[in-house]
Design brief:
The protein is α/β, with parallel strands linked by helices. The chain has nine helices and 16 strands.
């Protein structure tokens, strides 16, 4: 397990990239954080601001850099790309961000790096697929943030309704990070009790569990945040730290990251989220979970939608 001497390179010092860098610096897992951005003034400002807080956290080197710094990186996080506009779906971003990624991936490849690539740019599942195809790297090395954040939102809303700590709620969102995502109610539980068992003994007497309301809020959270403040970045910054920590610490954590499917549920050649064991080598394996017929149909639909958009790519 490596906790020292770890280098994380962040490509894109916008709201997501800089917030992730801030959260990562506080976490203390990376000994070196390097930011790359095409806007030199913004890059300088972000690095200065982060460094002025170094005395309050564990010793960490934070600096600006260039693509040569990717060569010796442990993890490269790509958060560069066009911003999602109000009313625009994640999939609407596809054309603009694919062109941005062509340049980024070429420059990463030129360094000969062996780093794990973690994609945060939306639409994240397709951008993960784009990264995999353009890089030619083994699929285990290319990961998207996937539905890690969606699953966190899911757990939070369940915990809020049930008045329990979110850490005691175990529930996953799989499929696309977006409109076709699939909540796995069949596996959701609180301290091991499925809702059919938990609700009768919880004591709230609140009536039927509001599953549809919770799923609706999970799916529309990002749109509400974007409408209110222009972008989402706090929670995704923390989600990225969680993923990177699992990689650097070799934790073998089960996370709903996006990665290439190879026959799971009869699906191939598409990146989407399933419960996945993540460690120092990237994707170790997918965890085969038994889905209900409705959930499996939703997953297949999610894959179909993503593949339809993938066919429009020239990669």
């Amino acid at each position: 397990m490596r906790e020292r001497g770890s280098r994380v390179v962040i490509i894109g010092a916008g709201l997501v990239g800089s917030t992730f860098a801030y959260a990562l610096m506080i976490n203390g897992i990376a000994s070196e954080i390097i930011l790359i951005d095409r806007n030199p003034d913004r890059l300088e400002g972000e690095v200065m601001d982060l460094n002025h807080g170094i005395s309050f956290v564990r010793p960490t080197l934070v600096r600006s850099g260039n693509y040569e710094d990717c060569k010796d990186a442990d993890v490269i996080v790509i958060s560069a790309g066009a911003n999602q506009r109000p009313g625009e779906t994640r999939l609407d971003l596809l054309g603009r961000n694919t062109e941005i990624f062509r340049s980024i991936i070429d420059q990463i490849k030129a360094t000969g790096t062996n780093a794990i690539i973690l994609v945060a740019t939306n639409p994240v599942d397709i951008m993960t697929y784009v990264t995999y195809k353009l890089s030619g790297y083994d699929a285990s090395r290319v990961i998207g943030s996937g539905t890690v954040l969606d699953s966190a939102r899911f757990r939070y809303l369940i915990s809020k309704h049930c008045r329990v700590d979110p850490s005691n709620v175990h529930a996953y969102i799989i499929g696309e990070h977006g409109d076709t995502e699939v909540p796995i109610w069949s596996m959701a539980n609180i301290v091991g009790l499925r809702f059919s068992e938990y609700c009768p003994v919880c004591g709230k007497n609140c009536g039927p569990f509001p599953k549809e309301d919770i799923v609706h809020e999970v799916k529309n959270s990002a749109y509400r945040i974007i409408k209110g403040k222009g972008a989402t970045y706090y929670a995704i910054g923390l989600a990225l730290v969680h993923i990177v920590e699992s990689i650097l610490r070799d934790e073998y954590s089960v996370l709903t990251v996006s990665s290439l499917l190879n026959g799971e549920y009869g699906l191939n050649d598409v990146c989407l989220s399933l419960p996945t064991v993540v460690a120092r080598r990237g994707v170790i394996k997918k965890v085969p979970v038994e889905l209900s017929a409705e959930e499996e149909a939703g997953l297949i639909h999610s894959a179909t939608v993503l593949k339809d958009f993938q066919r429009q790519l020239k990669i």
